[in-house]
Amino acid sequence: KRYAIAASGTKAGKTACGAMYAVRELANRRACRGWWVAPTFEQAVTVGLDAVRQLLPREPEIVQVKTTSPPEIRLVPTGSVLSFKSADNPDSLYGPGVDFAILDEAGRQSEEAFNATRSTLTFTGGPMRLLTNPTPRTGWFWRLYTKGLDPDDPDVASFRWRTADNPLISREEIEDARRNLSDSTFRSLYEGEFLDIGGSVFR
């Protein structure tokens, strides 16, 4: 579907899923242009760009990486480019059309940033992938996520999984978090639950 949402516990692998999707698009489409949008510029580079780069060859004749503004990864054989953007200034996201967009920590981004990124897909009709830890049951992201829970919705598909579903995270680490975090924080961060906690830090 055009909008796919992955809401999961922390370190459950949602960013890795987004990175694999981006690499697939860059490798299989010629002259494709995509965006990776994160809440801040630092997150776009230290999380997004690093996650995608780890999946690609290091040879400069195959992959070219630019970390200065605007940071981007270019796959030389296909001529496809992935640019890394910050959502903290939504007006800066209005611009040329792109073929696909990935919103990392989408639930922490404003509706204005979502709208601006969505506008860049208008000409191409391209897909959007939204990755996040669960947020409170309010606002634009919750509305879009609940649409995707309906298997008959023609546009949105939503998925949710727990930190424990990642086999690389030890059971001991999860139990430590259960013992030492508040119940609501543990359920949101590790169980991947959407909670009615209006003042949450996850807003």
Question: Any overview of this molecule?
Answer:
Helix 1 packs across helix 2 (41-53). The longest helix has 15 residues, at 14-28. Strand 3 and strand 4 form a beta hairpin. The chain contains 6 helices and 8 strands. The protein is α/β, with parallel strands linked by helices. An 8-stranded mixed sheet has the order 3-4-5-2-6-7-1-8, sandwiched between helices. The protein is globular and about 50 Å long.
* Fraction in helix: 25-40%
How much of the residues is beta strand, in percent?
A: 15-25%
Give the strand order of the largest sheet, numbering strands 1, 2, ... along the chain.
3-4-5-2-6-7-1-8
The rounded Rg comes to 17 Å
**What is the overall pLDDT average?**
94
Low-confidence stretches: 199-203
List keywords for this structure.
203 residues; alpha/beta; 8-stranded mixed beta sheet; 31% helix; globular; disordered C terminus
Please describe the topology of this protein.
Elements: E1 3-8, H1 14-28, E2 33-38, H2 41-53, E3 63-66, E4 72-75, E5 80-86, E6 100-104, H3 111-119, E7 128-132, H4 139-147, E8 156-161, H5 171-180, H6 183-189
Parallel strand pairs: 1-7, 1-8, 2-5, 2-6, 6-7
Antiparallel strand pairs: 3-4, 4-5
Helix pairs in contact: 1-2
